[in-house]
Amino acid sequence: MTGADEEPQDDAAVVSPQRTKRPGFVYFLGYGIMAPIARLVFRPTLTGRENVPKTGPVIFASNHLSFIDSIVIPLMSPRHVQFLAKSTYFTGTGFKGWVSRTFFTSIGAVGVERGAGQAAQVALDAGRGILEAESAFAIYPEGTRSLDGRLYRGRTGVAWLALTTGAVVVPVGLIGTQEIMPVGSKRPRIRKFTVAFGEPLDLSGHGSADSGKARRQATDEIMAAIHGLSGQELAKTYNESPPAGTLHRLADKVFPRERV
């Protein structure tokens, strides 16, 4: 997921999303098998499922602590959720490729190809396509996983999506998922976790998606709601590598750019 993917983007960026698809047999089969098993094994605490609208476009805006978050949210959500994943997960050959393709399809992933281009905007356009199909889309406003457990400042792409499509935003607070699959681990550990779905936010009162001020204020409202659910310490900065070189750091302070 970027804000839509769990890893920071580099020069190899998202350029072309697959066509948005409705959930099919593999998804419902996978969900029907995996969700009950996950609840039985991990014994998660779920709150606020009644806050998720049953129909219409919905953006799940969540904090991001672990790779496993992209599996937890679809399995614990009361409705089908789609998110973005690398297209290589869907194009492998042989038995391994089949397993990868089946698994990511079963949890609602939509493949995106990588290459040079406007990564963030094309990823957002893919999310827009999902929402315009009256579906639910999950996004991490922080942009990438928090390695220190703090909640970082939100990027405004989530607000652009909400204000452009008219979708409501359901804030999601994840607690404890970093203990299931810490950074660098290859196998999940059995640990309890919490998923809290907050009350849906109608952000239309902030103004047009073309307004930077509206996007910033709407994003700050979303992050405040996530913070209320997760209880994390606030970082008050963006979760990204610092600008390289003295001139880049100075320019970033004097002319702060909008993160999408």
Overall mean confidence score, pLDDT: 83
- CATH-derived topology: Glycerol-3-phosphate (1)-acyltransferase
Reported for the largest beta sheet, the result is: 8 strands, mixed
The SS-based structural class is: alpha/beta
Number of domains: 1
Rounded Rg: 18 Å
Silhouette: globular
Please state how the strands of the largest beta sheet are arranged side by side. Answer: 1-5-4-6-3-7-8-2
CATH architecture: 3-Layer(aba) Sandwich
Topology as a string of helices (H) and strands (E): EHEEHEHHEHEHEHEHH
Report the uncertain regions. 1-20
At the fourth level of CATH, the homologous superfamily is Glycerol-3-phosphate (1)-acyltransferase
Assign a percent range to the helix content: 25-40%
GO biological process, one term: phosphatidic acid biosynthetic process
InterPro entries: Plipid/glycerol_acylTrfase
Transmembrane segments: 24-42, 158-177
Organism: Cryobacterium roopkundense
SSE inventory with pairings:
Layout lengths: L12 E5 L7 H18 L2 E3 L10 E5 L6 H8 L4 E6 L1 H4 L2 H13 L2 E7 L3 H14 L3 E4 L17 H9 L2 E8 L1 H4 L13 E4 L14 H19 L15 H9 L6
Parallel strand pairs: 2-8, 3-6, 3-7, 4-5, 4-6
Antiparallel strand pairs: 1-5, 7-8
Helix pairs in contact: 1-4, 5-6, 6-8
